[in-house]
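To assess whether the prediction recovers the assembly geometry, we first specified each molecular entity separately, as shown.
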Amino acid sequence: MPPVTENGCGVGEYEVVELRAAFAELVSLATPYPGPGRALAPMHAIFGGADLTFERDGYLALQRLTHELADQSLAEGGPTSSTVQGWLVCACRVALDNDLDQGFAELVRQIDEPLRSWTVLEHVRGHFAQTPLRVGRCVVYGSLESIPRWEPSREWRVCLPMRRPHPCL
Amino acid sequence: MASLLTHETPAPVLVTTVFARDHESARVRARDRFDESRAILHLISDHIDGGKIGFSVLDEAGDARSSAGVEEGFVVRRLGFDATMTLGYRGLEAGAGKDSLERTDWERRVLAAARWLRRCFTTDWPSERVAAAMSALECLFVGGTGIRQQKGRAIADHVAPLVQVGGMTQDQVHAWIVELYKRRNDALHEGLWVLDDLDAARLVELTSSVLRWASFHLDEDHDHLEARRACQTREEAISSIPQR
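The predicted structure of the complete assembly is given in tokenized form:
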């Protein structure tokens, strides 16, 4: 199935109809989590937060739709399979709690979210004669505090310079 | 040196900005950029520390020799006066700053080779080191469809006149590379071990030298081409190698 979004991917009437039908099928195959008293089919996925389970045909439908809507991370910037699966499960929950139209609208809203800008940081160990130092598409800064327009939260301060204990094999 | 790399001082950070639909895709895209930048830092660093898993060894008397696992660390002292890359790496850095589809043939090859070379330093397994080093050399020297069956020889043809290996003549270097490429094939295709860790280490040293040569040909003012510009293609760069 071609992409369905409006954000540069185009949205043909046919694709929307096709997506809606696939989504309707997925909703019809979603069931509440039966609890630990019943064994689930070997192929299943449980989403505790949404209280939904997909088994057998439901699991295959979820896989198929996820695969069709997900996109490559490196080439296209996603969305990743896990994100798409989250959208689908959330939209199924909305559809079951309200109606199919609202669930589908929620799904399309998520698909139509544009690409966003992300600043990604990684701790690099070493001594640099001078910073900031541009290296390809990254910049080495001497510390978190020296990144322009960046006010590191307490969590960042804790996470980045973290030294982890090393388990032994 | 170890004290230089500990973090009593504020920890440096590598920062990039990417466009993505979700944080997982952002992480994948950023990882790609981080790995390219780290490959360049690896080449320009005076000293590379760590990047390996820690270990403990007990001798018969029960005395322990151990090494804590440490992350990869760099010491980068040689920068231009304006805090740009030093000569020999400016073109490589500029190439890494471009979108991957905008890179020239030689920029693409050298960056990929640098990433493979960095892999050599993250493992002690000779098979993996030889495979990664040979991948780096393939990126640089293997081109065209007719050469696919003779890759080891093609690499050796270009590398033997380019670098000197202590205790070997040029012909011996050539034969050694051809033989190592066969062992690389055995390791990758049949799971056979490359047992000679000294050979693997020597190949990694050789590959590092070759990478510096390759990066030099990306600098605009390198003196190989009359036009004084960066080499754009593999063919341009290897035209500087003397014939055997």
